[in-house]
């Protein structure tokens, strides 16, 4: 996995990360590849594709998070986007506390191991079904990457959000049909086209609020 490719990709995204972040991102990718041989965490096996399709794709949303302090990542699988985001925001003020909600035990176990090995104090891993999670404090935003279609996403996670909080759905091509199926009390406030270095595919961040 090329440190040069990662550095170039981060520069194209306009991201300046903490000094040790690139090393931790590469270590995470290596850990994901290692566990993937046994636990099938992701269908991507190629190291280069893992960098573009997972790391850079996850980090492309970073400029659009704003100054939120509490983020939930729902159906995070192999820790995407939560672990790259946790690595990239270490030492940030205000602190970004990220809770990963993953129902599959082996995937949550992998994330917990990555949290320990990479020293990610701001990451909490919850091995729960999202509908069973009752946070002590509601989240500022809930993010998902290939978790479900928009209507299911907002329906299953709305109890996690504070009033005025936002749903952040990472999608491929612009999801006209999914947006049309949103319940009437939810609205798309922004649809951000994302350009992921080396990906060569459409990506969008769909930002939804409950009205």
Automatic annotation (TrEMBL):
Keyword hit for Cytoplasm: yes
Catalytic activity, EC: 2.1.1.170
Entry superkingdom: Bacteria
Any Pfam family: GidB
Matching InterPro entries: rRNA_ssu_MeTfrase_G, SAM-dependent_MTases_sf
Enzyme type, top EC level: transferase
Compartment(s): Cytoplasm
Keywords from the UniProt entry: Cytoplasm, Methyltransferase, rRNA processing, S-adenosyl-L-methionine, Transferase
Binding site for S-adenosyl-L-methionine: 75, 80, 130-131, 145
Catalytically driven reaction(s): guanosine(527) in 16S rRNA + S-adenosyl-L-methionine = N(7)-methylguanosine(527) in 16S rRNA + S-adenosyl-L-homocysteine
Signal peptide start and end residues: none
Keyword Aminoacyl-tRNA synthetase: no
Gene3D superfamilies reported for this sequence: Vaccinia Virus protein VP39
PANTHER family hit by this protein: S-ADENOSYL-L-METHIONINE-DEPENDENT METHYLTRANSFERASES SUPERFAMILY PROTEIN
Family (UniProt): Belongs to the methyltransferase superfamily. RNA methyltransferase RsmG family.
Task performed by this protein: Specifically methylates the N7 position of guanine in position 527 of 16S rRNA.
Name of protein: Ribosomal RNA small subunit methyltransferase G
UniProt organism field: Aromatoleum toluvorans
UniProt gene name: rsmG
